[in-house]
Amino acid sequence: MGRYNLAPQRVNQKATQLLSSKRLPNPPPWYHISSTVPPSSRLDRPPLQRSQIPGHKPPGGKKKSKLFKPLQLKYEEDRLRWEYFNDHPWELARPRVVLENDGRDAERWDWSVPLDHALNRPRAGEVNALGRRTDAEWDHVRRTQAGRPINGEAVVQRQSYLMSHGGLTTALAYDTARKEFYRYRHYLETSTRVAREEALAVGAFFGPGPVEIGMHLENQAYEGWKAWAEKEVAAMKQMAGAAYTGTENQEAAISSPEVPEQEDLQEVSESVPASRQGQEAQGGAAVHP
């Protein structure tokens, strides 16, 4: 007790003794390394001396090297992404599908196609200035870009494409991509609402939504807590009523008649030992002849 264990520091010496006595046939792999770089002889490590003054550098010290400090990664879309999600914070609350086929799906999306391209279907048989059918070209684009997600990230990528290839300014490219996204999102919400109204009109029944389910669970938890609180309050009142307060004994002492001290002394004075009368016999063994 209270003694230092120096066995770890003397492991090289112990191995040398075992090798000299041939108890070890071959030196262990760490033998030569521990001989070259022996362990420290100090059993304690002094604390690092640092200045308590903020921003004060010790004399003779040098600036920390940033060689091993990781670089801060920055992308061109970070500024655009921050601007969009700062204007539309609730867009981050929408669920997103992050499942991909091979991890390179983003390389197949063509951001030269407007975000509301699905709403701009040309008339059947319409021909452009080059003599090509615009409806066939539209169908081809839809087949290749149908899986492109239209969300906040799509707005950022579309804006970046317009700035780099379209020659638009940041504000103009942002407004263009944002309006295309608004038009597409408005179409989806309107079509969903109309489909729900049509389904209800023909007798469809929809179960409770996420909000109704959450409110129901919250009400159940509140009612359970209320019942538990009522039981706890009743138990605490019962314990408080059964606790000793001392009022009953005080009332009994006040209501009982007081006996004068002189009468008590007269009753016990006749049987007090070491007096002339002595103490009266309180029983005992019979006297034998």
Automatic annotation (TrEMBL):
Q: Where in the cell is it found?
A: Mitochondrion
Indicate whether Ribonucleoprotein appears among the record's keywords: yes
**GO molecular function terms attached to this record:** structural constituent of ribosome
Task: Tell me the keywords, alphabetical order.
Answer: Mitochondrion, Ribonucleoprotein, Ribosomal protein
| Record region (Disordered) | 18-66, 247-289
Q: What is its main location?
A: mitochondrion
Q: Spell out the Polar residues composition-biased ranges.
A: 268-280
Kindly give the Pfam families that the UniProt entry links to this protein: MRP-S25
**GO CC terms in record:** mitochondrial small ribosomal subunit
Family as reported in the entry's similarity comment: Belongs to the mitochondrion-specific ribosomal protein mS23 family.
What is the protein's given name?
Small ribosomal subunit protein mS23
Question: Which species is listed as the source?
Answer: Hortaea werneckii (Black yeast)
What taxonomic ancestry is recorded?
Eukaryota, Fungi, Dikarya, Ascomycota, Pezizomycotina
